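User: structure tokens for this one?
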Amino acid sequence: MRSVIAPAVLLVAAGLAFPALGKDRPVTDQERVTLQAAVKAAGCTGGEMEFDDDKATAHPAGKFEVDDAMCGNQKHDLVFDTDFKMLSKKPD
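Assistant:
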């Protein structure tokens, strides 16, 4: 019985420790076009794009994340709301 309970406890603990896992999804083709325009308006290019649907209090509808966008000659992580308005721009 003990050998069955221990793995179950570990699975529950992992779910509590990493609640955001599996909440990201790739952007759609339509979102990509608009997000690329928003990234360009921020003076940046490229980057890995995804939609984070974590339903956080600050962003209950989710947010778009662009990792490693090139802004000038430095990489930045960008965050946009669902209306493609920039929320943050942090050097990576």
